[in-house]
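request received
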Amino acid sequence: MNVISPPPAQQAPPPADVSRALRGFIADVGPTVALSLESCVHCGQCAEACQFYVQTGDPRYTPIHKIELFKQTYNRELGPFAFAYKFFGLAPALTTETLTEWQDLVYDSCNMCGRCSLICPMGIDIADLVEQTRHGMYQAGLAPQDFLGAIAEKERATGSPFGLTSEKFRDLLHEIGAAHGVEMHVDEPKAEIVPTVSSIDVKTYPGSMAAIAKILNHLGQPWSFRTDGFDADNASLTAGDRAGQDAVTQGIVAAAISCGAKTLVMPECGHSFTEMRWEAANAYGKDLPFRVLHITELMAENIQSGKIRVTKVKQTATYHDACQVSRRGGATAAPRVILAALGVDLHELEDAGDANWCCGGGGGVALIKRAQPLRDAAFAIKKKQIEASGAPIVYTSCSGCRQTLDHGGKASGWTTTVGSLLELVADNLAS
Amino acid sequence: MTLLSFARGPGMQVASLIFIAGMFWRLFGIFLLRRRVAHAAARHPFPIRLLGGAVTIFTRTIPRRTFWPRVGAGVALSYVFHVGLFIILFGGAPHILIIHEIFGLSWPGLPRGVIVIASGITLAALILLLVRRLTHPVLRLLSKPDDYISWAIVFLPVATGILLSGETIASYGTLLALHILSIEALMIWLPFGKLMHVSLVFAGRFVLGYNFSRKGAAT
Amino acid sequence: MTAADENLGEMLARRGFGRRGLLKFAIAMTSSLALPPGMAVAMADNLAAAKRQSVIWLSFQECTGCLETLLRTDSPTIAALIFDFISLDYQEALMAAAGGAAERTLRQAVAANRGKYLLAIDGSVPLADGGVYSLTGGKSNVSMLQEFAPDAAAILAIGTCAAYGGIPKAHPNPTGAVGVEDVITDKPIVNIPGCPPIPDVLSGVLVHFVSFGRLPALDDRKRPLAYFGTTIHDQCYRKPFYDQGKFAKSFDDEGARQGWCLFELGCKGPTTHNACASLKWNDNTSFPIESGHGCLGCSEPDFWDQEGGFYTSLAGGTGPGWRDAGIAAATGIVLGSAAAISARRNAPKGTTET
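response:
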């Protein structure tokens, strides 16, 4: 058993703000979350589904344990027996010490991948509870500053995690278009399809923007990037900044509405899909006037209807599902449609699809520097599975996963190639 | 008033009333919290979502195959206990009799020997579950007084029931009183601790199934 | 030799019952009393030498059922002879004297046997309103008990009423009825409960007292262990059906006709201490269960008030009615709603709640 010891204390961060944490915890609790918080029977099965517990053997990484502070606060403040909890001291009150102690449990060691939610016999969506817990932790000032917290703050201030302005993004898009020989549509007043990007693509995989443009051009419907709402990354979400999360989301919704979009396309990214597909309408307050599709869903749908035509590739490959797109998002089938249409000899991973193991980088963990050992531990599972599949290439449709697999693969010296499904399609469009 | 007449009279009334009031209290306290309307376009229409919720109640009884290597043994042990208890409660003649006295329903009981064996296995499973809870690192970390109180409050009816059925250790009247009192303790405790999972398990699985069916996500 | 000087051995011999017969009787009684068989000879010798034991019988708030049962012996058995031999110096139903003559008889009997008579009581002792609900010659039961108990050698509380209060004590107990042991606490008391009690039990207690000069071993409810040491269930001939799970579900159903266990029809055998299942009634003819009706538990205190009545099984009792259950549910709903409303107020309105 390899126990990862807790990270060293950061240098003089401000003490965790207890009252703000409390308010953050109790702000968004409705019947579903309450039911989840009431239901745990301490069976311990969730630990067995979590890559961090499985790889380290450290019981602190038991998923339901990660949300303990949230649960106790609920019991004391909102539960049916709250008065008894308070009066008889049945649950401890929050302290700066315990909040700080739980920081790495809520952030470093959780991808919000949802495997725990899949195993829980009581039907508790534990991954969602972690997201809720981060609301309180963020309010307390406990989003790890190096660098998830810092990125979320930048996003809050500038609208983009890396401070990319609309102008800079516009220029970048045109550059990419020119470099790849692809027609770019930017800030068109009217567009049926509006794609968005992930900041990881902007930083590391700019070719994906060219790929989107290529495919949308091939599709033939009026489309446009919107620089007034482009960055779907939503680091605020993973940091737990509720207000920041909503601001990013509303910005994208507004941009799509302003050009009369019928379809909003989410990039190769996980949490951005979850947020825009399943949360944006709630932030907006009513039904969205457009569909939200993950890029793989857009491609699969149009491949099936014949509007996107692809040529066959002679490849043997495996596929890594992005947790937020497949298990959490309900779009597990789309990549398989695409791969089948491309004629890829697909060697599925063990537990592929809805029960897949997370790459270890999701949920903001890739943005926490000190969590490297934990990411390595989680990646070890994927490495083993990918190598066991016998495929020399692993495709994925999330830049977060792509980057994590890239980094992990380089560090472990593997020979597998990591590819983007989007770029594979873009490279193999039939003329 | 003897201990037995207390158990069969005022004890039964107080325990039943607390049990009923507590169940409603806890459930209403949860379900009347402020809820939001989900606006995101559902992947499946309402009837399918309802069906998804209902089906999840059953599908979550068995973990997915992929999890079996790591959780199989623990889940199996837990089922041995639960199924054993089910057999005792719904197959044992005196329990069927109580159900008949309250609700008017009745069905043939199982042979006494079957109940005896089931009781012994249930008791053994309970003890093993406690040992597991006390030794497994995850369970040691998670477990609170509630877990141990709930264990004891389930253990006592099973143990006293076995003694009563064996008519051993003390007089029938005393054993019967202790058995009934232990069940009354369980009834009083149930709505307030983790034993509430007897109702929450259905609600939780259904809600998760419904919400995930909304997303077309795996349940 | 006058009849008054005669001992039991001589009296029996006069009636044609020799030592052999007395020894056989003693063997039977030692068995009935659960005494070691070796004591039979001593019992026979003691009985032969015994003088008439004075018994003063006071009837209080009773139905006379206990007396009737004890008299219901079909043939003059040796137990009946013993009863004859004991000097029943006062018993209102049986004695010829009445009124003032009866009262004088009582006083004379007490005076003549002071410290030596057995005081037999049947019927409960009403205490409410100064004991006015049961009077003999204007004197309350409780005052008579208090007057005559101090000079008794021991008190026999015959029947459940005298032992524990019985029928009159059933809710709401308007007469304030109690058992003898609740009034007299400084005399040896033997409770011989049952509604009515088995005749053999009284005979056994008397024989024991006459033979050995002391009362037989008693349990914690002052009942002779020999007769009340086991429950009906322990000795019931239908126990195999109980063990096999064969229960009659209603009177006169197939199971009832097959003689199956009557547990589900409310039989209180498992919690009732008495000898009905072994000694039975009417010279070992039958007992309630054998006749197809569950044991009422009539030799146990408060058997009239037991939860759920005679026909609710021991597995059940008196739960709350549906009305009270509804009130409890409503209470829970109110409390839960109050908690939820308070929580709603407590929580800052978030952007969205799930």
